[in-house]
Amino acid sequence: MKKALITGVTGQDGSYLAELLLEKGYQVHGIKRRGSLFNTQRVDHIYEDPHVDNQNFVLHYGDLSDSTNLIRIIQEVQPDEVYNLGAQSHVAVSFESPEYTADVDALGTLRLLEAIRICGMEKKTKFYQASTSELFGEVQETPQKETTPFYPRSPYAAAKLYAYWITINYRESYGMYACNGILFNHESPRRGETFVTRKITRGLANIAQGLEGCLYMGNMDALRDWGHAKDYVRMQWMMLQQDEPMDYVIATGVQYSVRQFIEWSAAELGISLYFEGEGVDEVGIVKAVEGDNAPNVQAGDVIVKVDPRYFRPAEVETLLGDPSKAKNELGWVPEITTQEMCAEMVAHDLEEAKRQALLKNHGYSVPVARE
Ligand code: NDP
Ligand code: GDR
């Protein structure tokens, strides 16, 4: 039985990857952080009771900032494959916590690679690094592919640039099977609530059900190449099944604006929306409402506003990937379109909003967490 170790197993990608590897017959080990609240919601459905023998899904406490703990876990697990998905992954937050982001995202990767080497596993363990389209930042060519020069635009991207190169360095220096997946944005109903797609689907579903009044957005002109996380974790696994380690761009090859994603999400709720104004005065106004999914929205309501607090000190305006290498060499193609993914996310968040609205209508208090 193959053993895999996933850092960031409690995150969006970690949870889908753990499911995929369990389906493939792996024993899956994951590193979870200690938190003051439970933080395993995304993997609770695959949780296995640690009090019984022959567990296939095992969670270990750990942190990418603690090398002693990484060495101990690698020594104990002896993994065939390590997927380094753990990170402070929010670009805007990296401007607020740059040093922490560098410690976890850059040095954390080094600590993990070094832990594999210290345990004498560098010829046995295959290593996947969660690299990112944010490396392209201020884009130097469109679409972006494996050979496009990097130009990071945030502390997050600069930290991930170090992680990208140290992964290649360990491959070249020690003959490790270590590779980078340069993944463009990918989303799902499990996406963190403060990333733009989930903020939109959850916010509009809440507004439709009367739980919130308005969605406050940053730069709605930003263009992104959004895929579905399920498609992307499949590629993470495929990259470790080759004879030689290689780096790949993973993307859909199609881009849309944040504004377009808002319009799609509203349409899924039966809300027809138009935008008026410019810059911070730009608002999204309801044109018409159909069906019974948005009982609390009326024509003429302003349900989207721009708030400059969500602008970033340096923005990545446009990203569009060219996944030809992954397609030609590994036969990988995304199966879920951006619009299908948007519909899935809205349906998921609408169900939750309806549940909350039911409680509210029966007199229970339902505070809504927001940034
Ligand atoms: P999430 O933010 O959903 O998950 C991040 C995971 O990392 C969580 O499990 C989190 O734990 C964990 N983590 C955070 N800090 C630490 C730490 N100090 N030590 C150990 N674990 C830590 O991210 P995604 O699943 O979306 O992304 C997975 C990886 O892929 C990340 O590295 C991200 O930067 C990268 N990436 C993501 C893309 C995307 O569009 N989703 C695109 C390209 C790259 P906790 O649950 O406790 O917070
Ligand atoms: P990104 O994702 O920064 O691309 O990083 P995010 O969804 O946060 O932003 C995408 C774009 O939307 C614009 N935007 C807003 N973003 C947020 N979060 N909130 C807003 O209110 C808002 N309004 C507009 C942003 O300015 C940006 O242009 C994600 C993360 O998953 C990284 O870990 C990963 O490496 C990259 O994708 C690829």
Q: What distinguishing features does this structure have?
A:
binds NADPH dihydro-nicotinamide-adenine-dinucleotide phosphate; lyase; alpha/beta; 37% helix; binds guanosine-5'-diphosphate-rhamnose; NAD(P)-bd_dom_sf
Please characterize this protein's 3D structure.
The structure is a single chain. With 371 residues, this protein is of the alpha/beta class. It is built from ten helices and 15 strands. The strands form four sheets. A seven-stranded parallel sheet has the order 3-2-1-4-5-6-11, with helices on both faces. Strands 8-15-14-13 form a four-stranded mixed sheet. The chain has a two-stranded parallel ribbon with strand order 7-10. Strand 1, helix 1 (12-23) and strand 2 (27-32) form a beta-alpha-beta unit. Helix 4 (98-118) runs parallel beside helix 5, helix 6 (196-208) packs across helix 10 (338-361) and helix 8 (258-268) crosses helix 10 (338-361). The mean pLDDT is 97. The structure holds NADPH dihydro-nicotinamide-adenine-dinucleotide phosphate and guanosine-5'-diphosphate-rhamnose. Guanosine-5'-diphosphate-rhamnose (GDR) binds next to helix 3 and helix 6.
Please identify the structural class as seen in this structure: alpha/beta
Number of strands: 15
Distance between the termini: 43 Å
Helix content: 25-40%
The low-confidence runs, each spanning 5 or more residues with pLDDT under 50, are none
Percent of residues in β-strands: 15-25%
Compressed to H and E, one letter per element, the order equals EHEEHEHHEHEEHEEEHEEHEEEHH
Largest sheet: 7 strands, parallel
Radius of gyration: 21 Å
Q: Helix tally?
A: 10
Shape: globular
| Mean pLDDT level | 97
- Strand order within the widest beta sheet: 3-2-1-4-5-6-11
**Small molecules (ligands, ions, cofactors) in the structure:** NADPH dihydro-nicotinamide-adenine-dinucleotide phosphate, guanosine-5'-diphosphate-rhamnose
EC number: 4.2.1.47
Organism: Gilvimarinus japonicus
Protein name: GDP-mannose 4,6-dehydratase
Enzyme class: lyase
